[in-house]
Design brief:
InterPro entries: DUF3078. The chain is mainly β. The protein has one helix and 14 strands.
Length: 315
């Protein structure tokens, strides 16, 4: 997958500059969030760093959305476990934002859990996510540039299994709560030539926690090890724009390179989501995510989800 990243970057650069540059800085909220009801569609997106602060905000702002979606999902070599199925997923997204002059802060808490009952095969997990992301930003005099610092955490709620085994063999456990869990800290510079496109780069630290030592080697740790620290650097590109009326594309490429390993072991996360807003309570989305992380597998992980559902604004 990594050999296609330059093509993706080139295509994004074309998209970024074919329209007039707006001169907005890196912490401008998406035009999609025209009212509180619209934010519900973001609970599917992996693009944590884009849940940010409007440049008109002065002080604190909070929002909380809960939703239930039905989905058709397909998985291939996906580390959290799952199977092709029709499923039901519950989600909740809590956002807290603050802005004062040139400083801004955003907290994004994204929780998802889904299960499906498959004929003759019982109940299986189809989606599982715990993500807490913090972003601090400071706008420079040239408001296309800003300094940022991210502190992020992610894991899952429940056990995940690999069901791609012979019928006579029990499914293999491949994940559970805090196995793995990831902490990442990134500090760097962001460049936003347009309000729908941004580039980020910075130094990073990544900590991997494996509470269940039977899974340590599966995630690149030594036998019995529960913790790994990795210094490195991170790059990211984000694109979010309305393609048609009420149809929006949210896309990102994020990388992490460990300074102590060969660059060929760079982690790459490529996420795309096409979102269609039906009304204030209903939405549809198509999500396609690929991950390369050779600590888990030499193969590319693939996740595809087509879903429709309802959402309710709690706060």
């Amino acid at each position: 997958m990594r050999k296609y990243v330059p093509l993706v970057v080139f295509a994004w650069l074309i998209l970024a500059f074919i329209s007039p540059v707006s001169g907005q800085e890196a912490i401008r909220i998406s035009e999609l969030l025209k009212d509180d009801g619209d934010i519900s569609i973001q609970d599917i997106s992996r693009i944590d760093e884009t849940v940010i602060v409007a440049d008109t905000l002065d002080g604190w702002q909070a929002s909380w959305i809960g939703g239930v979606n039905g989905a058709q999902a397909a998985y291939n070599n996906w580390s959290q476990g799952g199977t092709n199925t029709i499923s039901v997923t519950g989600s909740t997204v809590f956002n807290l934002k603050f802005r004062k002059e040139r400083f801004a802060y955003a907290l994004d808490t994204n929780l998802r859990y889904g299960k499906a009952r498959i004929e003759d095969e019982g109940t299986r997990k189809t989606d599982d996510r715990v993500a807490i992301n913090n972003k601090f930003s400071y706008l420079f005099n040239n408001d296309k540039w800003s300094a940022f610092a991210n502190i992020n955490f992610s894991t899952q709620f429940d056990k995940g299994f690999d069901y791609n085994v012979p019928d006579t063999v029990q499914p293999r456990l491949i994940s559970k709560i805090f196995s793995p869990a990831y902490f990442t800290q990134i500090a760097g510079i962001a460049f936003t030539p347009a309000d729908y496109f941004s580039l980020q780069a910075g130094m990073a630290m990544k900590e991997t926690i494996i509470a269940d030592t039977s899974l340590s080697e599966r995630y690149g740790l030594g036998p019995g090890e529960q913790f790994r620290f990795e210094p490195g650097y991170s790059t990211a590109m984000f694109f979010e724009r309305e393609l048609f009326s009420n149809v929006r594309l949210i896309s990102s490429v994020e990388t992490f390179t460990n300074l102590q390993r060969n660059i060929s072991s760079t982690d790459v996360h490529f996420s795309n989501e096409l979102v269609g807003k039906i009304n204030n309570f209903m939405n549809m989305s198509f999500q396609y995510v690929t991950i390369y992380d050779d600590d888990y597998s030499k193969k590319v992980q693939v996740k595809q989800v087509l879903s429709a559902g309802i959402s309710v604004t709690i706060l």
